Amino acid sequence: MSKINGKTIWLTGASSGIGLALAEALAEKGARLILTARSEATLNELAERLPGNHRVFSLDLSNPENAFQHGQDLVANETIDVLINNAGVSQRSAVLDTDLSVYRQLMEIDYFSVIALTKSVLAQMQARKQGHVVTIASVAGKVGSKLRSGYSGAKFGVIGFMDCARAEMAEHNVHFTTICPGFVRTQVSHNALTGDGSKLNQEDPDITGGISPEECAAAIIKAIEQDRDEVIVGKGLSKLAPTLQRFFPNLVRKLSAKR
């Protein structure tokens, strides 16, 4: 049975970057999409140009409690086959220079919103004995590095959450896939938060050398279709880093301190 064609897929962060590439690829494969981001106007434009009939469901994920309530309202009227937690925000600031409010904002969007939306669909999936939750984490959730303490902390946390939820829901035939991208050529560094919460608004050389959003989307869809538990997506050092961390942790720590 196809994991994509004819399925209703709720996709967050759908208006740009990896999310936009996913929306385009999933629609081409015959999915019916529920498109979520903050800008309703941008989502409406996207829904109109994608093949198929899709729904726009704008949400601000910086308020997870509100997102959870709206998610429950959505599920009351929709059967969700696949939830893709893709929305997120990155960071570029040193620990000593980062306000506590910025750490909280990173956790709200990158960690608590994932829990909120996952919980909003999970009871329905358990009752139906089928469903799939996909979360776009990061290689930064496997390997820590400079200037990403809040982002990395949130991604480490969300990988742990996915591991626990996967174990709990295995007997109910609900699948959980964690995607850990390395460097992907998106606006993620431009939108990354600095120490005072403002956007970085500049290019990151590592990002420009990464894979395209389309390549990342193709790998994510393949992981969904194969019911993979966890997949590292990328090329070069950003893809190798988790393996190096596993077998040579001291080396990775030294390299991270020098970069």
TrEMBL record:
Q: What are the record keywords, sorted? A: Oxidoreductase
The keyword Oxidoreductase belongs to this UniProt entry's keyword annotation: yes
* Domain of life where this protein originates: Bacteria
Give the coiled coil ranges.
none
- Can you name one GO molecular function term for this protein? oxidoreductase activity
Pfam family of this protein, just one?
A: adh_short
A GO cellular component term found in this entry reads: membrane
Q: Does the keyword Oxidoreductase apply?
A: yes
In terms of Gene3D superfamilies, this protein maps to: NAD(P)-binding Rossmann-like Domain
Q: Where is the Ketoreductase domain?
A: 7-187
Q: Which family does it belong to?
A: Belongs to the short-chain dehydrogenases/reductases (SDR) family.
Q: What is this protein called?
A: Short chain dehydrogenase
